[in-house]
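Not sure how to ask, but would you mind making up any protein sequence you like and the tokens describing how it folds?
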Amino acid sequence: MTGRVHSWDLSTGVDGPGTRFTLFTSGCPLRCLYCHNPDTWRMRDGRSMTADQVTAEIVRYRDFLRAAGGGVTVSGGEPLLQADFTGEILRRCTEMGLHTALDTSGYLGARADDELLSHTDLVLLDIKSFDAGAYRSLTGAKLAPTLSFATRLSRLGIRTWVRYVLVPGWTDDPAAIDGLARFIAGLDQVERVSVLPFHKLGAPKYEALGIPFPLANTPPPSAETTARVRAGFRAHGLRAD
């Protein structure tokens, strides 16, 4: 089993509980205007690695990850673009007794079969917008597959953390946020909503790739706006940070 891998690193408190070995796969079907990793968009730019090679890297940190209450997160890019490879890595991690997480937009959720999800302890679900028009303008894709995947995760009882990037002028509409909060509140197993303020840390990557950064002139949200949006999710009984 071979996949295309961008990189991996160790992180704490970002990609799931505890300290994580986060594997970044290459390739993504979306083109989010605020994406901070444009270098992961194309599969062909990634490094070809076998599942054995990836597993060997994870094994180096296995005992540490267990002791730190962490595990392995498969991210991207979009890991479900390589669903078979992603599923194999998750399966092997489960067999090693490591906590597993899948970081996905949900747009390709239909590719995650029940076998893959049976080896997934937590899904980090990035919902870009709850307005279908804004979602298409922001990502170039349809919103419906992500909502369908979220509903399926709820039905299967899979723990989910929702991520929502707050971008002024794009994802700060109160009505859309309220609609999303109502949708999430109607799901089972959603443990938290992380409101992530838009930033421009990925801008140098665009420059290096010779690609214009679409939101170069968009400011980050104010602390007041971020607090308001988090309060909007909490008003529906959700844990938001």
